[in-house]
Specification:
Blueprint: H1 2-8, H2 15-31, E1 39-41, H3 46-58, E2 62-66, H4 68-73, H5 76-83, E3 88-91, H6 94-103, E4 111-113, E5 132-136, H7 145-157, E6 163-167, H8 173-182, E7 189-193, H9 197-206, E8 207-212, H10 227-234, E9 239-242, E10 257-260, H11 265-277, H12 279-296, H13 299-302, H14 304-310
Parallel strand pairs: 1-2, 2-3, 3-4, 5-6, 5-8, 6-7, 8-9, 9-10
Helix pairs in contact: 2-3, 7-8, 7-11, 10-12
Length: about 325
């Protein structure tokens, strides 16, 4: 036990978790003795600890997928410890891959880019845009939904009648409710809570535009590439988003939506107004987004990199 924990590393305060992770890995290794050829962790935090221990116990290679919080929010020492022993590291955005390259240049050969994808067969058929300004996501500060509420106030005060629907729940709900009440926007902005994936597709069908006003927090935490962007574009809905994280890798300003600076509700309001008042342009943007998702972001295509690695067609060099 001490020898294995020494290999895994970590600070003294990680000790309790690492022991729990080792117990989980050992139990799984015992139940699958000789049955596993390789191990993959889908996140580079605690799941990576378990995967690495399991791989060491079984004597098999392991790999890991890294996402926005893994890369930008956790301590670099923890991230370095958790991924350095893996055979292959799959980053979900180019900006994350570039960040990893700066952090760990000595293992650059192990990095691979693998975007998230969505099941394009589950997208609703293309339809005429609705009237709703839609936002979807967990109600937390990095999502920037307070900026959308402020943009709605700007539009209302300018005489623009809009209907904003925010789907999701989370710790910022109370603050958002307070802002809506403070600006007397109860008739224009609705927080509808969490919804199933099936009902979410109906919200996209009602949308004229989908807004993703993400921001980077002081901790470094930010969005990578929210799935809502792929779902919105795949539904032929233009996206107004901020140039944060991996978002500009998919939302191309003027081609399938608009990019605005983060924390700028006036710019957000202007972009929303343009789409609501220029329906032909909005349709052009939406169709371009749908074509992009179906050609490049169908999950059957994006997962191919991982499948080929699992099948042994990709042989990364270990440093």
């Amino acid at each position: 036990l001490p020898a294995l924990l020494a290999v895994i590393g970590g600070s003294p305060r990680d000790g309790v978790w690492l022991i729990r992770a080792l117990i989980a890995a050992a139990a799984f290794a015992h139940s699958r003795q000789g049955e596993v050829a390789r191990v993959h962790a889908h996140f580079a935090h605690r799941p990576a600890d378990v995967a690495r221990m399991f791989a060491l116990l079984q004597g098999v290679p392991w790999s890991v997928s890294v996402h926005a919080w893994d890369v930008f929010a956790q301590a670099p020492t923890a991230l370095r410890r958790r991924i350095a022993g893996s055979e292959r590291i799959f980053a979900c955005t180019r900006v994350a891959q570039e960040h990893l390259t700066r952090l760990l240049p000595e293992i650059t050969a192990r990095f691979a880019l693998m975007y998230h994808g969505i099941d394009a067969t589950q997208l609703p058929p293309e339809s005429c845009p609705g009237e709703v300004v839609l936002a979807v996501g967990r109600l937390e500060r990095k999502k920037g939904f307070d900026l959308l509420v402020e943009a709605a106030r700007i539009l209302r005060d300018a005489g623009d009648l809009i209907s904003v629907v925010i789907v999701g729940d989370g710790p910022e709900r109370g603050a958002l409710e307070g802002a809506i009440a403070r600006h007397a926007l109860e008739g224009q902005v609705a927080l509808v809570g969490s919804r199933s994936q099936a009902s979410l597709m109906r919200f996209y069908a009602q949308a004229a535009v989908v807004v993703v006003p993400s921001r980077q927090l002081g901790s470094g935490d930010r969005d990578g590439l929210p799935n809502v962007i792929l779902e919105a574009l795949g539904s032929a809905r233009p996206v107004v988003a901020t140039a944060v994280g991996g978002i500009p890798e998919v939302v191309v300003d003027g081609r399938n939506g608009f990019l605005v600076p983060p924390d700028d509700p006036a710019a957000l309001a202007d972009a929303i107004r343009h789409i609501l008042t220029n329906r032909d342009d909005a349709r052009r943007l939406g169709l371009a987004g749908a074509a992009l998702v179906r050609s490049d972001f169908d999950s059957r295509r994006t997962v191919r990199t991982l499948c080929e690695y699992f099948e042994g067609d990709v042989h990364p060099t270990s440093a």
